[in-house]
Amino acid sequence: MKTYSLxxxxxxxxxxxxxxxxxxxxxxxxxxxxxxxxxxxxxxxISIDKSEFTSSIEGSVFPLIISAQxxxxxxxxxxxxxxxxWDELFFVVDLPASGTQTYxxxxxxxxxxxxxxxxxxxxxxxSADTPVAAATSETxxxxxxxxxxxxxxxxxxxxxxxxxxxxxxxYLDGRNAKDLFGKTTSAISPEDVGINADGAVEDxxxxxNEWGRDILSVGNSVGIGGYALIVGDQLMxxxxxxxxxxxxxxxxxxEIAVEGPVKSVLHYNYENWKPTDDxxxxxxxxxxxxxxxxxxxxxxxxxxxxxxxNLAVGLVNINDQNPLEEIAVNDQWQVLLTHDMxxxxxxxxxxxxxxxxxxxxxxxxxxxxxxxxxxxxxxxxHVANDEPVTYYAVACWELSDExxxxxxxxxNYVENLVQQLSAEVDVSVK
Length: 430
What we know:
Blueprint: H1 2-22, E1 29-35, E2 41-49, E3 62-66, E4 72-73, E5 75-78, E6 88-95, E7 100-108, E8 118-121, E9 123-124, E10 133-134, E11 137-141, H2 146-149, E12 160-163, E13 166-170, E14 178-183, E15 212-214, E16 224-231, E17 234-237, E18 249-259, E19 264-276, E20 279-289, E21 295-303, E22 310-316, E23 325-328, E24 333-340, E25 350-357, E26 361-366, E27 376-382, E28 389-397, H3 407-422, E29 425-429
Antiparallel strand pairs: 1-7, 1-29, 2-6, 3-4, 3-7, 5-6, 8-12, 9-10, 11-18, 12-13, 13-14, 14-15, 16-17, 16-22, 18-19, 19-20, 20-21, 21-28, 22-27, 23-24, 24-25, 25-28, 26-27
């Protein structure tokens, strides 16, 4: 009896130790944020690399961040390199000018529920008679464009992404332009935007819905934040137009890399882009969005450049009748801005802007009124092989905030956004 009891006790202790090791929760820590600027920061993006944490963080645990006032700060863990392990802790916070805030960080085994403030969406169908199904990735070959296969494969012509302020979509069908969803609510738009009751692809978003609508005429431009290359006076479009049956990109791959309550990330690879007979490029693009701004971030990099190219980032001007404004806000960023009733039928006021790196900015040019790439102001930027260029595209609709009817208000908003993005925050984990 005594021997049995000892064995039983030993087994129980072993089991407890085993479970304890399997479910080990990392120790609590503090995150200290110091705003180095004299700007009050709102929804400031904070990214902390996994390597900043001194204690081992393994298994299925989730961060829980608590402010000094006892408020829970929504956060998420992101796998940015696709290795199925998280490498970034991300959240957004409000910080006082030149102030320091301390947050408690603990790790929990159940994912906390947060208000969803960002989203990425993609749907596709395999045939004209097959309902659209949600997806997170796609591979498109040059001969698979709608003009070639006879139908539009993608919900909203390609992936869409949004936050609590504004939404965008990317024409994955070979055009690679970027369009705009104006929002009238902070809620995320329904999952069935661009799909009818039978599950088929249908344009349901060029009329007003409870959440908003598509408000921007894109045509053969690259939209708001789409891009091309320029060699001399020659514009080289990444992809083709709606009238083309074969792409000039041999293979396009896409994936939703991250979708979470406070950050969503989309990733594209364009293999063997051949805009001319003597040029072949490889292109990588990453699109990110987080809450609180009427904008998204885009980063592109190229290989195969010969050295005579410039990057051209587009700002569609189909319905714009006012001149483009150039604003050097600070030493880091240059703004190109338009404000007009430049929605469909010139019905509403809309401000559009590009925020581009000042040290790469080479001025702007204007695309012709017709052709493969048309109706755009194009910011010209220096570009080099394997060096990413990061910029922001901004869109502010009067039905999102009636103050955007006023050009000065819109201009001030963009300039303040630049200051917000430029502000440095010291981050330490203790």
